[in-house]
Design goal:
Number of domains: 1
Protein name: Major facilitator superfamily (MFS) profile domain-containing protein
Helix content: over 70%
Distance between the termini: 24 Å
Shape: elongated
CATH architecture: Up-down Bundle
Transmembrane segments: 5-25, 37-58, 70-86, 92-117, 129-151, 157-180
Order of helices and strands: HHHHHHH
Number of helices: 7
Organism: Piscirickettsia litoralis
CATH topology: Growth Hormone, Chain: A
InterPro entries: MFS, MFS_dom, MFS_trans_sf
Domain Major facilitator superfamily (MFS) profile: 2-192
Oligomer: single chain
Radius of gyration: 18 Å
Structural class: mainly alpha
CATH class: Mainly Alpha
């Protein structure tokens, strides 16, 4: 994937993973009437626990560089679906399942994004490239916080989840079209 697309992918991924976090505890209190600090903290941190447990195992699996973008797209779709289900479900077991699925999606997303970044031909510009990537992730967090606050105030508690899921699905569609067109062009040039 070209460098500008990787920057955009990094922005969207970080934006979407941050947008729901400020209001997840409020969602739990409103939809599930959970007020125990231990339970709220456990559910909030569950995707991160899944990430920490699974990152080392999943990183060992090698894939072709050409498959990394598809793995990233799949992680975006899984993450989007987990957002929608978390915001709509009234079932505690489905909520737990979606938090676990969210952790798996975050893990796959970070692995594939980092692998795509590692394939960049940096030509002694590593500091500049990683500086931009770090800056992009910070800007994504700022934008996610602002949009989460505005959407929550205007549209309600489920709005940040819906926006995060929508952005992920649009991005996965865009990347899928890009990959299909690129593959079509490669196939045509190969047969020409």
């Amino acid at each position: 994937m070209p460098y500008p697309y990787l920057l955009l992918a990094s922005f969207i991924f970080n934006f979407s993973t941050v947008i729901s976090f400020p209001y997840f505890i409020t969602l739990l209190q409103n939809h599930f009437d959970i007020h125990s600090g231990v339970m709220l903290g456990f559910l909030f941190g569950l995707p991160h626990v899944v990430y920490l447990i699974s990152i080392f195992t999943l990183q060992k699996h090698q894939q072709k560089p050409s498959h990394q973008t598809w793995m990233f797209i799949i992680s975006l779709i899984i993450l989007a679906l987990s957002f929608y289900w978390q915001s709509l479900t009234a079932s505690f077991s489905i909520l737990i399942t979606m938090r676990i699925l969210m952790g798996v999606a975050i893990t796959l997303g970070f692995i594939s994004l980092n692998r795509m970044i590692s394939t960049l031909k940096l030509q002694k510009q590593e500091g500049k490239v990683f500086g931009w990537l770090d800056s992009i992730s910070k800007w994504a967090g700022v934008c996610a916080g602002l949009i989460a606050g505005i959407s929550y105030q205007s549209l309600g508690i489920t709005a940040p989840f819906a926006i995060g899921g929508f952005v992920l699905l649009i991005t996965s569609l865009f990347l899928s079209i890009y990959l299909c067109k690129r593959q079509h062009m490669i196939t045509r040039s190969y047969h020409a």
